User: Which sequence fits this backbone?
């Protein structure tokens, strides 16, 4: 998931976290029984689940030595425990596999589940699924709790579709590695279950203060579904926890998520998009004193950025969080705030989303990532990490660069470790391990407009803080030409001119806007600002008489391009549609399926995302009016289908009118029930679910055009 969908999960959901078991393991109860084959494997599996990698490795080694065979799943666990222990153990597993393992399993056992980097090793836990989300680990009561979108009691199993999963629920793992709904575990701990009919998690629990703080879906602005923090407090008289209450000193019109309570300081940390912040989602804190919460406090610009900061955790006074607002390895990355500054946990991060690190010892824990399973869904990763070493900041100065917009690709090798980064401007810094004596440093760098260069030297970190670099300029180059062509979807060139504006940016933030007109389907302009640049952001909006508006925003790599043909990057330019009665604008604006819960017509958060596209269409094209038509398949009675489709059409229309402030005069709605079947699937004809699905649709046809 990308950061926008992951942190702004109030569109239905939210991801989250819950309790994770201590990696340092426990003693299996069945250890008192005889040490036969089954008992050895049970001990190995229990040790793997509880994070005791050393015990898991030894039990599996014993089982192979004694019985010469284990299952494929046990091989995965055996290797995972070895990876987390070190290279020596990992190599031993590979040797043993060659002797005892099934060759047909090799790719599944040794590929795409484990990775290591420097002093960092990680293993994708084998109970993760490929198609569903698992993330947000936290330990409680000696058990590992997570949040997952796997099928659960809160979803209609007959209505599962691609990209439509269950509402998130809290689960826990038993000693056999079986995932169980947390309602079974927490039954009776409060007057309400921990899992509801919507998204639940993460929670944070304070044993010292005897209270639980849970994120779950709640109404926010305009009664839209968002995220709120709920609290359950232990009642000494009743000897039970209270019912869930929304935290009163947090404004209900905004989203609050990702709670983490630090028992050492009686401080709750969380993420919120309430006003007064620095970016989208910021990190906040509240302290608990005599059972009362302080007012929420923004953690400030030393941590928060113009991006999103999420998933705070604390371990031994070190503050960890995730953000997409820093120049780091990927999109959502893990960072640490330590010694009054933020730095990246580079070993943990990839070009994918990496978030929510949860330490259970100085060198072990869990974090979440969508990098490993090939489906882009989130998994929980166990890791081992060398204890945080003392570091020093080494500054690099690019003396040949005078502009903050010049981009330099830099590779720095310190010892055996390579770091490659993209630098904008004339300086950057790296955290390096402090050491006695000199260390070898090699720097390769290539700046826009300059010849590539390399520098090798020995650096004494006790006496040197800065390294100066230089390069010779390349010969002058010409600025690129931006060419914009528009066509109808049938290839015809519009006979009338198009008026609009084009905005360009070199950094994705500061845009230069230019008015433009297109005659005979084409226009061009020289982009002096983009001369010698590598990347370019372009936004455009054009209005052509008698046609729907054209608009898009694209990110371009313009390396070595003398002429930038924008239509190659933005195919919408070649799909111009005439504004005419009967045209379904849903297809033009790429509106997906509008899903409703079974026999209901309330607007779900995922449906709201699609209806927002229609709002955009009506705002961009004020001259059109549309009919919203809702259709069903033939299953069920014709009368009930007619009523249901009418209610759904009306509900969708009301959402567009109220959310988009659209005049009622521009929008009509009608339920067609099963009267306009698109294929053979009428009453009495047997059809597949996919064939029936073709008839369940919502259309947005133009009914009138007034200029």
Assistant:
């Amino acid at each position: 998931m990308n950061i926008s969908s992951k942190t702004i999960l109030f569109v239905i959901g939210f991801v989250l976290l819950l309790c994770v078991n201590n990696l340092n393991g426990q003693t299996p109860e069945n250890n008192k029984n005889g040490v036969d084959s089954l008992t050895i494997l049970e001990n190995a599996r229990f040790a793997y689940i509880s994070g005791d990698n050393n015990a898991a490795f030894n039990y599996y080694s014993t089982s192979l030595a004694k019985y010469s065979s284990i299952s494929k799943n046990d091989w995965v666990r055996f290797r995972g425990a070895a990876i987390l222990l070190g290279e020596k153990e990992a190599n031993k597993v590979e040797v043993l596999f060659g002797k005892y393992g099934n060759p047909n399993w090799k790719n599944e056992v040794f590929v795409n589940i484990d990775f290591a980097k420097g002093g960092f090793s990680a293993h994708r836990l084998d109970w993760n699924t490929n198609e569903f989300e698992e993330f947000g680990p936290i330990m409680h009561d000696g058990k590992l709790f997570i949040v997952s979108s796997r099928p659960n009691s809160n979803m209609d199993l007959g209505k599962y579709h691609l990209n439509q999963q269950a509402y998130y629920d809290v689960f826990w793992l038993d000693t056999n590695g079986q995932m169980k709904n947390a309602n079974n575990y927490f039954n009776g701990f409060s007057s309400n279950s921990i899992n509801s009919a919507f998204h639940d998690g993460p929670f944070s629990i304070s044993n010292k203060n005897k209270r639980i703080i849970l994120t779950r879906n709640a109404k926010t602005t305009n009664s839209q579904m968002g995220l709120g923090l709920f609290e359950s407090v232990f009642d000494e008289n009743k000897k039970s926890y209270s019912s869930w209450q929304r935290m009163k000193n947090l404004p209900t019109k905004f989203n609050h998520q990702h709670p983490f309570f630090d028992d050492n300081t009686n401080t709750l940390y969380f993420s919120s998009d309430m006003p007064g912040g620095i970016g989208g989602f910021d990190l906040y804190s509240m302290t608990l004193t005599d059972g009362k919460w302080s007012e929420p406090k923004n953690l400030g610009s030393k941590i928060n950025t113009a991006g999103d900061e999420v998933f705070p955790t604390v371990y031994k006074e070190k503050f960890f969080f995730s953000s997409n607002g820093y120049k780091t390895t990927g999109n959502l990355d893990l960072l640490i705030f330590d010694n009054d500054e933020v730095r990246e946990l580079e070993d943990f991060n990839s070009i994918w989303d990496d978030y929510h690190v949860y330490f259970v010892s100085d060198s072990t824990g869990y974090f979440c990532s969508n990098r490993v399973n090939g489906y882009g869904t989130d998994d929980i990763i166990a890791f081992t990490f060398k204890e945080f070493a003392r570091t020093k900041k080494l500054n690099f100065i690019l003396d040949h660069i005078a502009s903050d917009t010049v981009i330099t690709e830099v590779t720095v090798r310190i010892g055996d470790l390579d770091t490659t980064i993209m630098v904008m401007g004339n300086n950057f810094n790296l955290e390096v391990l402090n050491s006695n004596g000199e260390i070898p440093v090699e720097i390769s760098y290539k700046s826009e407009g300059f010849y590539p260069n390399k520098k090798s030297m020995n650096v004494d970190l006790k006496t040197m803080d800065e390294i100066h670099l230089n390069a010779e300029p390349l010969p002058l180059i010409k600025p690129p030409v931006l060419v914009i062509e528009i066509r109808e979807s049938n290839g015809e060139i519009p006979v009338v001119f198009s008026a609009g504006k084009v905005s360009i940016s070199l950094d994705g933030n500061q845009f230069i806007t230019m008015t433009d007109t297109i005659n005979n389907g084409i226009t061009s302009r020289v982009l002096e600002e983009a001369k010698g640049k590598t990347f370019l952001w372009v936004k455009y909006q054009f209005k052509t008489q008698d046609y729907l508006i054209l608009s898009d925003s694209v990110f371009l790599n313009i390396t070595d391009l003398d002429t930038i043909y924008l239509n190659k990057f933005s195919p919408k330019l070649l799909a111009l549609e005439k504004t005419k009665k009967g045209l379904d604008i849903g297809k033009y604006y790429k509106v997906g399926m509008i899903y409703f819960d079974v026999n209901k017509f309330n607007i779900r958060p995922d449906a709201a995302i699609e209806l927002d596209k229609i709002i955009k269409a009506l705002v961009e094209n004020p001259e059109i009016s549309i009919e919203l038509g809702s259709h069903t398949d033939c299953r069920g009675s014709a009368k009930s289908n007619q009523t249901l489709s009418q209610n759904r059409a009306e509900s969708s229309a009301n959402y567009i009118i109220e959310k988009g402030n659209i005049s009622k005069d521009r929008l009509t709605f009608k339920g067609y029930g099963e009267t306009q079947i698109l294929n053979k699937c009428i009453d009495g004809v047997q059809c597949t679910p996919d064939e029936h699905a073709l008839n369940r649709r919502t259309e947005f046809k133009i009914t009138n055009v007034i200029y």
Observations:
- The longest helix spans residues 638-660.
- The longest strand covers residues 225-235.
